């Protein structure tokens, strides 16, 4: 009868059955339904006007269920410490939108049709953002100021794209 185990290069067995440690416990991770839902990264694709409110994935809105913020703070990756305040809308059907303040962020970071915008939730209502253009290449920026969230919404200072 053939064995169901194999030996790797270091001479350790790689069993294919359950309880490979011999103690009756499974070495497999728990089924997905028992894992807590952690949504910390997601992206959106800009198909319509890049300056109007943007819908975020429903899974992310579900993750924030019960903690829906009135605003979030966007930080462009590699663009200094500045936080951009963006108001958030919830539509009552579980959808979350970036609203007032998104337009300024989008202008300053060159968000346009066909861009992919990657978000990473850092906690405390802060999202770090990376923008990829239509060629699927990341746009890199730097900031030459130390301004934070103290600027008015009408004062849009773009990050500068390195030459």
From TrEMBL:
It is found in: Nucleus. One of its GO terms (molecular function) is DNA binding. Residues 1-10 have a biased composition (Basic and acidic residues). It comes from Lolium multiflorum. This is TF-B3 domain-containing protein. SUPFAM superfamilies: DNA-binding pseudobarrel domain. One of its GO terms (cellular component) is nucleus. InterPro entries: B3_DNA-bd, DNA-bd_pseudobarrel_sf, Plant_B3_domain. The keyword DNA-binding applies. It holds the Pfam family B3.
């Amino acid at each position: 009868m053939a064995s169901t185990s194999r030996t790797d290069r270091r001479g350790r067995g790689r069993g294919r059955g359950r309880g490979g440690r011999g103690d009756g416990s499974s070495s497999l991770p728990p089924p997905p339904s028992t894992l807590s839902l952690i949504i910390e990264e997601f992206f959106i694709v800009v198909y319509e006007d890049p300056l109007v409110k943007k819908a975020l994935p429903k899974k992310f809105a579900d993750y924030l269920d019960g903690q829906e913020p009135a605003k979030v703070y966007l930080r462009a990756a590699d663009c200094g410490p500045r936080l951009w305040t963006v108001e958030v809308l919830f539509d009552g059907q579980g959808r979350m939108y970036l609203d007032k303040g998104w337009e300024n962020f989008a202008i300053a970071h060159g968000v346009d049709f066909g861009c992919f915008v990657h978000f990473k939730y850092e906690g405390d209502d802060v999202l770090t953002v990376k923008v990829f253009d239509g060629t699927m290449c990341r746009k890199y920026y730097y900031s030459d100021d130390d301004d934070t969230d103290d600027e008015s919404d009408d004062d849009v200072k773009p990050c500068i794209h390195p030459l």
